[in-house]
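Let us work through a complete example step by step.
Step 1: write down the sequence.
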Amino acid sequence: MDLENYRNFLAVIETGSLTGAAEYVHVAQPALSKQIRALENFYDAKLLITERGSRKVILTEAGRLLYQKAKYICSLEDLAKEEIISTQRGAAGTLRISVANSRSASFVKNSLRPFSELYPEVSFEIFETSFYEQSQQLLNGITEIGVLSTPIGQEDNFEELFRRDEYLAAVFRDGSQWHGNSRRKGLNLSDLRNVPLCVSSGCHAILRKACDKIGFHPKILSINTTRHTALQWVLADCGAAVVPVEPGEELGEAYHIKKILDVDTELYKSVVKVKGRPLSPLALKFIQFYNENSNSRRLCDMRRLETESRI
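Step 2: predict the structure and record it as tokens.
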């Protein structure tokens, strides 16, 4: 099957209509419709349904399956092209990474910026999204590397390459009415009594469990999808944020970070890849760089990973 048919099928789904796709890919609509019929004949299945009186298309179950596979098929061609360019020009091409929303800022600062300075011909496509979307992007070949803020939970599909421990912290604004005058680097949950708490969603269950254990009822002001949003409440001096923090991490001069001492839980971020799938030369080069320059704990066998990716 011609790859153009797959790419144009993706365009139809992503623009939502044959008309929009035809304009986007610069193909006449009758020719585009013919390509869709060719795909349906090839797979002997109806892929799209067009509602009468509406230009929008609806995916069938077969169409939804092909949509995911077509993304992977097309991404393989893109990766092949980039790998060939990379072998001719050294480290070049586009590195595609799925990153948890709360980890993107520190990941860019600590890992991507120094890598970019070392390899200026490399560009980046960063997908900041939920764990479910991260896993789908990785499995479908849209990205090669994932930076997760939650345990993998799908050990059959993914290989954890690195792990970096974190701790639960209360973050206050400098000079905040909620901060008090304490110079201690840490505090206990009871010290947060009557303090409005803005919690990142990934930490909410952990906080609740720890509070229930000691019979403490926290004053939850907001539960936020990302750590960034929780910290915006802090800047507005509405309370304190309860978020995961890496050892030695700095959030900026505006913030005071205090480790919550009586919360005993395992928090970490992971760098992962799809299990058994070789990395492209560029992705492998980044993993080698990360291994040598990050403070994360390595869980993978680098020699095996290099051999697997160079076959």
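Step 3: interpret the result. Residues 41 and 83 are 33 Å apart (CA to CA).
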